[in-house]
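Protein in question quoted for reference:
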Amino acid sequence: MQSACTHPANAAVQAVLDRLVAEGREIGIQICAWQGEEQIVDCWAGVADAATGRPVDADTLFNVFSVSKAVSATAVHIQVERGLIDYDSPVAAYWPEFAQAGKSDVLVRHVLSHVSGVLRMPPDVTPERMTDWDWMCRRIAEMPGAYPSGSRSSYQSMTFGWLVGEMVRRTDPKRRPFGQFVREEIAEPLGATDLWLGIPDAAEPRVATLDAVAVYVAPDGNMMREAQPTIVDLMPDPFERPDVRRACIPAVGGVFNARSEARFWAMLANGGQLNGVRLLSEERVASFAAPRPHFEDADPVFFGMVVPIGWAGYWLGGGENPPVAAPRTMRALCHPGMGGSIGWADPDLKLAVAFCHNRMFDTRDIGEDSRTLIGDTIRAAL
């Protein structure tokens, strides 16, 4: 059964999804989009589990990997809005133990914009230890940065989540675990009931099975291996482990569906509010599209590529190659995830799109990129 959405964009996207699945370019996929206060696309196709033939439906959940970072960054901005965090204060002002090993000058702003230098995962990390919030925060606090704070782009592939999450946890008057904070302060107010940083047991049967045959794996000796060690790499193993799915891993552990994720991006596309619920001021959200000082730096974690991150923790769209080609405008806020997931908010069109799927791929060719094709299809139908 397909959705009852009647906007012309919905039928156009559904036809594209059916074709992509028929051609083997996707296995299971969901797309949801909003324009302003209206949901205009709500589509899905394919199978959630190729082995059993379980079909994708509106409630299927997908690993979205680094799309999670956009939600986690938003939690920091909410605390700033409330006067509980200041962008130009040291992280150690909120998390005193973090000042160890020469990190006392790392600012909140450095963390949001991926120039803190604190990118290394603990060398003794395991999947089990990664699920232990206190262990991860203690080890990150003990370790020195790989680069001086504020000196260069250095993508915090996995550490980003504990860095922002522990600041939020320690400044929350209720001292809630970070996953609970996100549920109660972002997901529930927006009606995004399936925006999970740590799933409940009842959600497990709805999660799609990943296929990672088309994903590039960094070689040993690359800085990516320090930021994202092989033992906890962003692959089906370990991210399909029950304990990992249930843990709050805020940079890369999100398990979302497109309907809930699209509500999050719609809040940003509409200047910080959706359906009468305001999470951020319009002025603050407008500021997020500004690039960071090190916008053009080659990033050693990303194999020497330029990572188009704005100062506020979101990627900026509009580049010539996937994934950031999908929004087609530099004013869009977006965040891709390992294997091709993405979501974005275009403030000019007030358009928000969530793209969730289980066929993980890497591509630099727009002609082979499902994300860009679907974005173009939606915009053509507006």
